């Protein structure tokens, strides 16, 4: 029996906060790790000793032998990308058989969704979102329009065929005359028909699985993808992804109730990054931003794109803490700030002579706010290798304490390097 805490892990910024590392770390004390939204737009990096794993769809708990991993109905799953990820795990000697499950209600991302994602991005022109082109938006559109294709449809060839034929009808403007091989629905059908055996082994009622596990006092980690500011309702819409990346997404994305969750852990990078377009008040388009990108190796784990970098933004984080109900935060990449002379933190926004303490919901306003900064002296000692909060350089302690006092949350973990061991456990 394991009486640990059931935690939702969410990114508090624009993604890439280090969720993969923290989920892997907390997975050691959990029985089940469940992903609740997003798809292969995510890139979650885990480094164990000298091995690097980048996972897109499979929960970050899979690296731990014996842990059960669940992909919920809220995820949009690219079956071909998923197969590649399974092959990667097998190459790495990770045995997932019998411990990886997918909700049969999860919608599929099929090749035509990726094609449409690219076509729509091009047609947006200068207002393009900068999506990952993984077909995420078009797949969620189909789901909400109620003509999506789900895992369960793979097991019923006649139904699958009909559904694909219907796609051809309703998406004629994309399919008719297209020379893109991803528009070839017969090929998609045939490729899917090679997969039922693989998915039969994995498809389950994920909600039921989690409820039964909960009744047996199993410890469950709910793994979010992307970040709070990319939430389709509460983020910087339309520069957002197409799912609820915030804690609420865990309930609908897995079919669980709030009583199953004991704590919401927010992952906060010690500075801010964003990939793709959209407002980013504390962005640094200068040498300081370059320095963060270089030291933090800020290049996308999924697309390889350089990430936009800037100072920590407490206005943005207050929003994230509120919309997720964050109890405690894991602060990552503190080591990237080592050696920086002066570190700034945005404590408010200024717009037309007025001071704002909260993120304005109107993007036109958010695009024009000016950050109000508080400057902290940096530290020279390395933070990597420290095992206790008290061992950190004094100025690093001052920086961290200021953040959590402002946000009125506790610190549970401080991450000072990409490896599992480069971690200070404060409250776990
Ligand atoms: P995720 O999408 O939130 O899982 O984050 P990503 O994996 O996309 O990006 C985080 C990057 O930072 C990865 O390359 C991690 O290996 C790395 N990383 C995570 N925590 C730390 C840390 O504390 N310090 C440093 N230097 N790198 C870290
Ligand atoms: P993880 O889980 C960072 C961004 C894209 C784009 C916007 C919409 O690794 O933190 P989409 O392909 O979802 O339609 O793109 O969202 N985006 C991410 N940025 N980390 C991610 O995931 C992201 N997933 C999507 O760059 O701006
Ligand atoms: Mg990532």
Q: Strand pairing plus helix content: what structural class? A: alpha/beta
Count of distinct structural domains: 2
Looking at the chains present, what oligomeric state does this protein adopt? single chain
Q: Which shape, going by the Cα principal axes?
A: globular
CATH class of the largest domain, named: Alpha Beta
Major sheet: order of its strands? 9-7-5-2-10-1-11-15-19-20
List keywords for this structure.
4-stranded mixed β-sheet; binds magnesium ion; 2 domains; binds 6-O-phosphoryl inosine monophosphate; 14 helices; Adenylosuccinate Synthetase, Chain A, domain 1; alpha/beta; Adenylosuccinate Synthetase, subunit A, domain 2
Task: Please summarize what this structure is.
With 428 residues, the protein is an alpha/beta fold. The chain contains 14 helices and 20 strands.
Description of the molecule:
The chain is an alpha/beta fold and 428 residues long. It folds into two domains: 320 residues, Adenylosuccinate Synthetase, subunit A, domain 1 (Adenylosuccinate Synthetase, Chain A, domain 1, 3-Layer(aba) Sandwich), CATH 3.40.440; 94 residues, Adenylosuccinate Synthetase, subunit A, domain 2, CATH 1.10.300. It contains 14 helices and 20 strands. A ten-stranded mixed β-sheet has the order 9-7-5-2-10-1-11-15-19-20, with helices on both faces. Strands 14, 16, 17 and 18 form a four-stranded mixed β-sheet that branches. A hairpin with a 7-residue loop joins strand 19 and strand 20. Helix 3 packs across helix 4. The longest helix is centred in the first third of the chain and has 14 residues. The protein is globular. The mean pLDDT is 97. The structure holds guanosine-5'-diphosphate (GDP), 6-O-phosphoryl inosine monophosphate and magnesium ion. The site of magnesium ion has 6 residues, from loops.
């Amino acid at each position: 029996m394991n009486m640990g805490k059931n935690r939702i892990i969410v990114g508090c910024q624009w993604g890439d906060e280090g969720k993969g590392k923290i989920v892997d770390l907390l997975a050691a004390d959990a029985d089940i790790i469940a992903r609740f939204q997003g798809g292969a737009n995510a890139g979650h990096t885990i480094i164990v000793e000298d091995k690097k794993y980048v996972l897109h769809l499979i929960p970050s708990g899979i690296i731990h032998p014996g842990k059960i991993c669940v992909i919920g109905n809220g995820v949009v799953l690219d079956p071909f990308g998923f197969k590649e990820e399974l092959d990667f795990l097998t190459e790495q000697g990770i045995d997932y058989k019998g411990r990886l499950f997918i909700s049969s209600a999860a919608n599929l991302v099929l090749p035509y969704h990726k094609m449409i994602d690219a076509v729509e991005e091009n047609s947006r022109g200068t207002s393009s979102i900068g999506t990952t082109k993984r077909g995420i938006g078009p797949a969620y559109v189909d789901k909400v329009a109620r003509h999506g294709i789900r895992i369960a449809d793979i097991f019923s060839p006649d139904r699958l065929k009909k559904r694909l034929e219907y796609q051809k009808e309703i998406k004629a403007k994309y399919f008719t005359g297209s020379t893109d091989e991803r528009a070839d629905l017969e090929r998609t059908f045939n490729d899917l028909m090679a997969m039922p055996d693989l998915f039969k082994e994995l498809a389950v009622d994920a909600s039921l699985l989690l409820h039964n596990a909960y009744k047996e006092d199993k410890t469950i980690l709910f793994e979010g993808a992307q970040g709070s500011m990319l939430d389709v309702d509460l983020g910087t819409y339309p520069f957002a992804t197409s799912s609820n990346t915030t804690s609420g997404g865990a309930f609908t994305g897995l079919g669980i109730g709030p009583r199953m969750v004991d704590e919401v852990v927010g992952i906060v990078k010690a500075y801010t990054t964003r990939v793709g377009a959209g407002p980013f008040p504390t962005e640094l388009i200068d040498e300081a931003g370059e320095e963060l990108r270089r030291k933090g190796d800020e290049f996308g784990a999924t697309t390889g794109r350089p990430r936009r970098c800037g100072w920590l933004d407490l206005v943005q984080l207050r929003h994230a803490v509120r919309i997720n109900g964050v109890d405690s935060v894991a602060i990552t990449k503190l080591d990237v700030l080592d050696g920086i002379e002066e570190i700034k933190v945005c404590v408010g926004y200024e717009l037309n002579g007025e001071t704002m303490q909260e993120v304005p919901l109107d993007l036109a306003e958010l695009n024009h706010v000016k950050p109000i900064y508080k400057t902290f002296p940096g530290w020279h000692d390395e933070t990597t290798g420290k095992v206790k909060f008290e061992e950190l350089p004094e100025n690093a302690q001052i920086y961290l304490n200021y953040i959590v006092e402002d946000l009125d949350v506790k610190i549970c973990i401080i991450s000072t390097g990409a490896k599992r061991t480069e971690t200070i456990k404060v409250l776990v």
